[in-house]
Request: fold
Amino acid sequence: MLVRHDIRSLYLGTERRVTVWLPPGYQRRLSRTRYPVLYLNDGQNLFEPERAFAGNTWQVGEVAADLVRRHRIPPILIVGIDHGEANRAREYLPVEDERNPFARRPLGREYAEFVTREVLTFMARSYPVARGTAATAIGGSSYGAIAALYTTLVKPGIFGRLLIESPSLYVGRQHMLRLSRRAKRWPSRVYLGVGTREAGRQDRDEETVKNVLLLERILHRARLGPRRLRLKVEEGAGHSEGAWAHRLPEALEFLFGR
Reply:
């Protein structure tokens, strides 16, 4: 079941839709159950084909429902946060992307404030969410992965689980890798996913995978072992909702499974 809300954001200066996916058996008033929450960027591309890029979604609801029913993960809430359409690149990036003329005057810090101060507050007020870092996750793909990673780094201690798919780690001459090297605290579990055909150009395909491997090395140096870190390099996979949907079951089970 999907529930839609429009949140007025002081940090972004606009109204933004969030879509809340409710797990099988969800009960709001008749139970004391408190639910972990996964916040995902690019909310248009998660659940509904009619709103998704090229009609393709991450199939988040179907995948999560199947895992819950098979007891692979506990019931969780999943919150899709819509991107800002023409302002998507500006909101998701903390630095400019020299390859994208629409990524000038970045608003990454404002977006991090919007998520942590406004979206999380709204969810805590409106739904029976579980408290604490271990019950709070964030994720995204491409620029949305950069936004998730950046929000985690500038707001340490809020998110205990991090899902990073096909991150655009080249932006700002690897700005996010430099920021990651200085991080003092990481989530308890991190999932990294990437394909070997992300860009359709050999040099950029290799660059994308290389940068993800560099991030993995940084996390290893931060003492994230196999129980805390999972890397999936998928041969032949591209930069698409279909690829992220294909890896989503493994990601959710690693992040939330026992």
Remarks:
- The chain has one domain: 2-256.
- Residues 2-256 form a domain with the Rossmann fold fold (CATH 3.40.50.1820).
